[in-house]
Amino acid sequence: MLVSPGEMNQMGDQAFQQIKQKTPVSKNASINRYVHCVAQHITALTPMSYHWQVTVFQSKQVNAFALPGGNIGVYTGLLGYARNQGELAAVIGHEVGHVLARHADARVSTQMVTNIGLQAADAFIGGSSSTHGLMMSALGVGAQVGVLLPYSRAQESEADLIGLTLMAEAGFDPRTSIQLWKNMAQAGQQPPAFLSGHPSGSTRINDLQSHLPQALKAYQKARAAGKNPDCTR
C-alpha cells in the first residue's frame, strides 16, 4: 500500500463529487427508501470508523459502487436485475466488500508501480527509436492485461465472498446472490474472463455455490437472532 487511508478517503470523496456532477440523483422516494433500507442492514455490520452515505442515481446503468470515504452509489438501472432485497443486498455487500478489503488502495498502488515501470522502460528505450511508440504501446497493454486486470479479477472474487458473508450475517438469504448473477448475465454479453476485470459469470456462480453452506449457517444464525430485513419497494 503506497497511499494512506486518509488519502484514499479524499480521493473517494473527489470521485464521488465528479459522479454527482455527471449523473442526476433520483427523486423517487420509494426507491430511495428501499435502497437505503438494504444498505443500512449491510453497513450496520461494518466497523464504526466507516461513515456510510447512500445515494441513488437516476440512470439506466446496471451498476453500483462504494468508494473509500464511505459513499455508496446505486443506479436505478440495477433494480431491473437486482429484483428483490436479497439480490440488491448481494450487490451492495459486494461493493462494501471492496472498501473493507481496501481494494481501491491496492489498485492505486499497483497503478503507481506500473507507471514507474513504464517510465523506466521509456527512458531505457529512448525517444529516438523509430519503434519507440509501438514498443511503449505494447508495454502498456502488457501492464494492463498482465498486471492490472488479473489482480482486479482476484479482488472481484474476494469482494463476492465478503458480500456473501455480509448479506448472510445481516439476515438476507445468501442463495439470492446466485440468482442475481444469473440476472446480471442478461445485461449483455460478457467479455472473456482473460480480458475482463470481472470473473466470468460461471466462475462467479461456482465460487458462490462452493461457499454457500457456510453462508447459510451465518444466515440461519442471524435469523435466529431476530435479524429479518423487510425492505420493499
**What's the helix-strand series?**
HHEEEHHHHH
Strand content: 5-15%
Structural class: mainly alpha
Helical fraction: 55-70%
pLDDT < 50 stretches: 141-151, 191-196
Shape: globular
Please report the distance between the alpha carbons of the first and last residues: 40 Å
What is the alpha-carbon Rg in Å?
20 Å
Return the average pLDDT rounded to an integer: 81
Number of strands: 3
What's the number of structural domains?
1
What does the main sheet amount to? 3 strands, mixed
Strand order of the largest sheet: 1-3-2
Number of helices: 7
Summarize the structure in words.
With 233 residues, the protein is mainly α. The protein has one domain (5-224). The protein is 61% helix and 6% strand. It has 7 helices and 3 strands. Strands 1-3-2 form a 3-stranded mixed beta sheet, with helices on both faces. β2 and β3 (71-75) form a beta hairpin. It is globular.
In short:
The protein has 233 residues and is mainly α.
Summarize the helices and strands and which ones pair or pack.
Layout: H1 5-22, H2 29-43, E1 53-57, E2 64-67, E3 71-75, H3 85-100, H4 103-125, H5 132-169, H6 176-184, H7 201-224
Helix pairs in contact: 2-3, 3-5, 3-6, 4-5, 5-7, 6-7
